């Protein structure tokens, strides 16, 4: 009995040592920033404790430790952090009466990339494939103003994103909502605080800018719109010119139709020969043949009845 207790204690000590090493950085002699299962097993073997890398992986899995994963974080250094959050979120939840709340921002460096070969269509067990090589035709900047109440988007594309372009777009937004009080949520980009922009705001008191905290631009709802068009229209698009990577020049549209960049046209799947069977399918076929030879041709029928 004492021997069993000692064995359990040794296993627990080894487990604790694995977790202890995992939560520390590898020594510089290994030239690695984090542990792998094989590297950790090698380090423990050097200490006189042989262990397989599979055992290390099982310990990691049991305790939810994933040293190969890493995330990023960022703290806002804005001294008015709480006040700005309350201001922006308050506009979303309780907008002023008879006023329009807009989220405005720019998405710079939208690249017009044309693939050097036609995109291969999606097939069963095979995703759509685009050529790695491309022809770069330039970039454009998308300015967008998202109306919080309805989701309507007003947009404009420019070659640059200086305070001059921002002011031109701000005038376009103001003209889209005449004789209405406008509360515009923007980030802390210097172009939004330029003296020329401030002077224009002084002459147009119906337009109010509300700034998100420093490093907290995710509070701006238009960022969600940029994320949608990036995933659904830009990332896998094929654009032979810069104009093709820009939204239609309608000025505004309803959600889902504003920033749908034009591509080379619909891709028609081409007929292809059937794919050869995979290794798993071949193994399954061989097992079926062995079962038929051993138990007779009606084995699958009997198994189907018993399983039902």
What is the secondary structure topology, with strand pairs?
Blueprint lengths: L1 H21 L14 H10 L6 H11 L17 H13 L5 E17 L18 E14 L5 E6 L4 H14 L4 E6 L8 H9 L3 E5 L10 H13 L17 E2 L25 H17 L3 H9 L1
Parallel strand pairs: 1-4, 4-5
Antiparallel strand pairs: 1-2, 2-3, 3-6
How would you characterize this protein structure?
- Helix 2 packs across helix 3 (53-63).
- The protein has two domains: 2-63; 81-253, Nucleotidyltransferase, domain 5, CATH 3.30.420.10.
- It is built from nine helices and six strands; from the N terminus they run H-H-H-H-E-E-E-H-E-H-E-H-E-H-H.
- The chain has 308 residues and is an alpha/beta fold.
Short description:
The protein has helices spanning 2-22, 37-46, 53-63, 81-93, 163-176, 195-203, 222-234, 279-295, 299-307; strands at 99-115, 134-147, 153-158, 181-186, 207-211, 252-253. With 308 residues, the protein is of the alpha/beta class.
Strand order of the largest sheet: 5-4-1-2-3-6
Question: Globular, elongated, flat, extended or rod-shaped: what is the shape?
Answer: extended
Describe the sheet with the most strands: 6 strands, mixed
Gyration radius, in Å? 30 Å
The CATH architecture of the largest domain comes to 2-Layer Sandwich
Number of helices: 9
How many domain modules?
2
Number of strands: 6
């Amino acid at each position: 009995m004492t021997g069993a207790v000692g064995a359990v204690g040794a296993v627990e000590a080894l487990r604790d040592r694995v977790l202890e090493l995992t939560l520390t950085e590898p020594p510089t002699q290994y030239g690695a920033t984090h542990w792998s299962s094989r590297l950790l097993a090698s380090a423990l073997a050097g200490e006189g404790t042989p262990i397989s890398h599979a055992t290390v992986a099982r310990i990691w899995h049991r305790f939810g430790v994933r040293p190969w994963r890493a995330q990023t974080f960022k703290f806002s250094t804005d001294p008015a952090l709480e006040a700005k959050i309350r201001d922006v979120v308050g506009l979303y939840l309780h907008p002023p009466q008879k006023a329009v709340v807009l989220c405005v921002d720019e998405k710079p460096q939208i690249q017009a990339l044309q693939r050097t070969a036609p995109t291969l269509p999606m097939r069963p067990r095979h995703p759509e494939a685009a050529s790695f090589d491309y022809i770069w035709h330039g970039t454009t900047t998308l300015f967008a103003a998202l109306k919080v109440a309805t989701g309507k988007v007003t947009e404009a594309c420019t070659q640059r994103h200086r305070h001059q372009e921002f002011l031109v777009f701000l005038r376009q937004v103001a003209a889209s909502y005449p004789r209405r009080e406008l509360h515009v949520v923007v980030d802390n980009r210097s172009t939004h605080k330029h003296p020329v922009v401030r002077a224009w705001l002084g002459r147009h008191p119906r337009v109010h800018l509300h700034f998100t905290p420093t490093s907290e631009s995710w509070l701006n709802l238009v960022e969600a719109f940029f994320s949608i068009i990036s995933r659904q229209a830009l990332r896998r698009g094929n654009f032979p010119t810069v104009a093709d990577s820009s939204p239609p020049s309608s000025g505004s549209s309803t959600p889902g139709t504003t920033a749908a960049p034009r591509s080379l046209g619909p891709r028609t799947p081409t007929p292809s020969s059937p794919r050869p069977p995979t290794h798993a399918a071949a193994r399954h076929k061989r097992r079926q043949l062995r079962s038929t030879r051993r138990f007779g041709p009606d084995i699958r029928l009997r198994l189907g009845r018993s399983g039902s």
